[in-house]
Specification:
By secondary structure, this protein is α/β, with parallel strands linked by helices. It has a single domain (3-321), classed as NAD(P)-binding Rossmann-like Domain (Rossmann fold, 3-Layer(aba) Sandwich). It has helices at 13-23, 37-46, 64-76, 107-127, 162-165, 183-209, 232-246, 252-264, 308-321, and strands at 3-8, 28-34, 54-58, 83-86, 134-138, 212-216, 273-278, 295-298. The longest helix has 27 residues, at 183-209. The two termini are 36 Å apart. Bound molecules: NADPH dihydro-nicotinamide-adenine-dinucleotide phosphate.
């Protein structure tokens, strides 16, 4: 049968390249779950995604109502779902003041974590019906304090989760750890939540539902719109720094292929894994040669990401905030 893959936030960057790669694979159909319907339609055509290989649907992860409406309208289409890719994210490092979702949560954690948390819960039973069911959450090393990139301040730190317990909704509880607002840290915290959630879903649901859970760090995709808030000099320097100094650079195209590999290939069938690639990317773009392309391997997450007590607390608080408990 045809493998139906939902990708959130694939109107740009990594998600768009993964959606395009999946749409060209035999027997795949991509559901582009995007907040801007017409942008998604437009970029799908620009990427030459074959007509009939994808469906655009509206999903705004910054609204729990929108998440619920997406699931209802997905079911009413009568489509099966084999894989869910939680990819959408906002990164707001230069916001001096916090912004909030429709439900009043700080945006980075509200969109990147809570919206996806609800979506995974609502779609679990539908996904479990597949022959090769998978839920993939895009992670990042920036939330991983055991890596070089994860050591760049401010560091991710969920603390005792007091800000989250207090609703993540007013200025004194805008950060998960209850600290002062810092947009860059809020993003990193949200990525830690993504990885903790993946591991907790694996622990609670893998044996019972047979779903493969995975997270990945696709490499540094230095040219996506994620860095749109950054200054022009940064957007010029950053890709070059990643290409020639850290060698962590990966083109959007190749990062998309890596994500698509985790969604469908047999070598990424193992559950509970944080996938990465070693070796240099195939191409550094601009005509310069790259490395061999890198091989998939099971990465070691940081201590905070393997803290089971924290994962359980995050799970309980997230259930409460999303209205599931
Ligand atoms: P982009 O900014 O290019 O893409 C983010 C996508 O998320 C866009 O399609 C955006 O939609 C969508 N989005 C934002 N808010 C919402 C919302 N409320 N509801 C639905 N969709 C939304 O960034 P990237 O491609 O770089 O990021 C994709 C993923 O990769 C993220 O999870 C990020 O954390 C991760 N990542 C990125 C790395 C990098 O180096 N770039 C490294 C490691 C991980 P719109 O087009 O409307 O803005």
């Amino acid at each position: 049968g045809v493998r139906h893959v939902i990708v959130t936030g694939c109107s740009s960057g990594l998600g768009l390249r993964a959606a395009a790669d999946l749409s060209r694979k035999p027997n795949h159909h991509v559901i582009m779950a995007c907040r801007d319907f017409s942008k998604a339609e437009r970029v799908a055509k620009e990427m030459n995604m074959p007509a009939g290989s994808y469906t655009v649907m509206h999903l705004d992860l910054g609204s729990l109502t929108s998440v619920r409406e997406f699931v209802d309208s997905y079911r009413s289409k009568g489509l099966p779902v084999d894989a869910l890719v939680c990819n959408a994210a906002v990164y707001l490092p230069t916001n001096p003041e916090p912004s909030f979702t429709a439900d009043g949560f700080e945006s980075s954690v509200g969109i990147n974590h809570l919206g996806h948390f609800l979506l995974c819960h609502l779609m679990r039973d539908d996904i479990a019906k597949s022959k090769d069911p998978r839920i993939i959450i895009v992670g990042s090393v920036t939330g991983n304090t055991n890596t070089l990139a994860g050591q760049v301040p401010p560091l991710a730190d969920l603390g005792d989760l007091r800000g989250l317990s207090n609703g993540l909704s007013d200025y004194s509880n805008v950060m998960i750890d209850g600290g002062e607002y810092d947009g860059a840290k809020a993003y990193k915290d949200s990525k830690v939540c993504n990885m903790l959630t993946m591991r907790e879903m694996h622990k609670r649901w893998h044996d019972q539902y047979g779903i493969t859970f995975g997270s990945l760090y696709p490499g540094c995709v230095a040219e996506t719109n994620l860095f749109r808030e950054k200054r022009a000099w940064f957007r010029w320097l950053f890709p070059r720094f990643q290409k020639y100094v850290t060698k962590g650079y990966v083109s959007q195209q190749e990062a998309g292929e890596r994500l698509a590999q985790v969604v469908s290939s047999p070598e990424a069938k193992k559950s509970g894994v944080y996938w990465s690639w070693n070796g240099e990317a195939k191409s550094f773009g601009e005509g310069s040669a790259g490395g061999s392309g890198g091989a998939l391997f099971e990465n070691e997450p940081s201590d905070e990401v393997t803290d089971d007590a924290k994962a359980e607390k995050l799970w309980a608080e997230s259930l409460r905030l999303t209205g599931l408990a």
